[in-house]
Amino acid sequence: MPDEGWPADHELLRRHVAGDAEAFGELFRRHRDRLWAVALRTLCDPDEAADALQDAMVSAFRRAGDFRGESAVTTWLHRIVVNASLDRLRRRAARPALPTGDEQAFEALVAQDGDPARASDTRMDVDAALRLLPPQQRAALVLVDMLGFSVADAAAILDTSPGTVKSRCARARARLLPHLAHLQGNRSASESVSPAQGGET
Amino acid sequence: MTHLDTDVLAEFRAGLITGRRGARITAHLAGCDRCTALDDRLAGVSVLLASVPAPAMPDSVTQRLDAALTAEVARRDSPERARGDGAGESPTPRRPRENRGFRLLALRVLAPAAAVVVLAAGGYGLSRINFGSSTSSTASTAGGAATAGGAATAGGAATAASSAKSATRHANAPAAAPAGITPGNIVVVTSNRNLSRADLAQQVRAALLVPPAPGSTETARAQLRGCVLGLIGDHPPQRVESVRFEGRPATLVVARTGQGDTAWIAAPDCSATNLHVLDKTSLPSGISGP
């Protein structure tokens, strides 16, 4: 991702490390909507996302001196936010009885949100469908398909290889297909869910 | 060739299947309407996801983050002047999961006070910023009796006076938690304490009665944070202290578990995925205050 605005991100970070009281705020404000989107989509929970984003912001503020410029500042910021979000998911996974990631939860959400075929409900349906994905797949898909990061940048953010990002995204798209088919064009949901037979071999 | 599986097509689309296998898929798609349609719908997933507008950050979150940032800047600006002054009972951001309504309410109501939360979480009170809440302080016991003298040096007469006052008021209240330690901000106290296996509970009890020395706290690094959160689960953290155990480096972790507290001695390699505990003890109710 290119740095936006002036001064450049890395210059703001440098000023922050040098003691400038305003620099970090300007840097964070510049990117916070996207950082919020990452946290919210990864965690699927506004309260958790707010907690994660605050943790990440404080962490970035304090650890700015550790930034070595090996990646873009935005990549570094996103990495901190994604890690804070995945940390929370891991902790949540350790707790039982939270309705994420299963089909019943999805059905319940769709039912609660009303007619899933209504175009105005696209965002809710997408949000509900995202919950079906394992966290690592969801994080990769959010970065690449929803926020437009390149596979290489997403890999840097997720601290993994481009191949792994591609693979996680591919599995995530395949998983989401039947749940999002009703939102695509004017095809009906029943047409869209095509029973796959065997492999290609 | 049978029809293509969705997963296989998705991998193919992502460029993960090449060579002879990829060529066979290409050939199959060229002659199969059904799989081409599936391929189109798969492409449509990405198109659809890209079309969903990014959610706007709610105002409450914006305000909360701004307050936290202001507090961070203030903390960094004046760590010297900040010490010793009870910053007020932290309206701690620790919100029980089981109470969603409260969490939302707390977020809204406490947004203007969020600066106080983070100040306290950093282990410092800020004498130069008046948030007007220090009179109701109980967290000021963290800078209580044992450090009132130190506060006089670090924070000047006025600060010392207020600390001494609260220290008197809370002379009998143990100063267990560094002000505002929360699951979101694990503050580690560095000490020279050497704990041993025998009578561990008694030693931990003694440790909790001593407030952290000014400047002896820092935010836990990721590994330790993972370890602490893994150990305490949903229980409120009371103290995380870098100590020695049986002469070796270790971390004391104390959390409020039900009526009493539980203390763990974590090994240096303890992490979220490897909860390496050297010893564990429970402290009956009332040890670290109400």
Shape of chain A: elongated
Q: Please give the order of strands in the largest beta sheet of chain B.
A: 2-1-3-4-5-6
- Backbone structural class of chain B: alpha+beta
Helix fraction of chain A? 55-70%
Helix and strand composition category of chain A: mainly alpha
Protein architecture, described:
The complex is a heterodimer of chains A (201) and B (290). With 201 residues, chain A is mainly alpha-helical. Chain A has 2 domains: 1-93, Rna Polymerase Sigma Factor, Chain: A (Orthogonal Bundle); 100-190, Orthogonal Bundle (Arc Repressor Mutant, subunit A), CATH 1.10.10. Helices cover 66% and strands 0% of the residues of chain A. The radius of gyration of chain A is 19 Å and the shape is elongated. Chain A starts with 8 loop residues before the first helix and ends in a 9-residue tail after the last helix. The relative contact order of chain A is 0.10. Mean pLDDT of chain A is 81; it is low at 110-120 and 186-201. Chain B has 290 residues and is an alpha+beta fold. Chain B folds into 3 domains: 6-51, no CATH class; 59-169, no CATH class; 187-283, no CATH class. Chain B has 10 helices and 6 strands; from the N terminus they run H-H-H-H-H-H-H-H-E-H-E-H-E-E-E-E. Chain B has a 6-stranded mixed β-sheet with strand order 2-1-3-4-5-6, sandwiched between helices. In chain B, a hairpin with a 2-residue loop joins strand 4 (248-257) and strand 5 (260-266). In chain B, helix 1 (6-13) crosses helix 3 and helix 2 (19-31) packs across helix 3 (33-51). Residues 81-179 of chain B have low confidence and may be disordered. At the A-B interface, helix 2, helix 3, helix 4, helix 6 and helix 7 of A face helix 1, helix 2, helix 3, helix 4 and helix 6 of B.
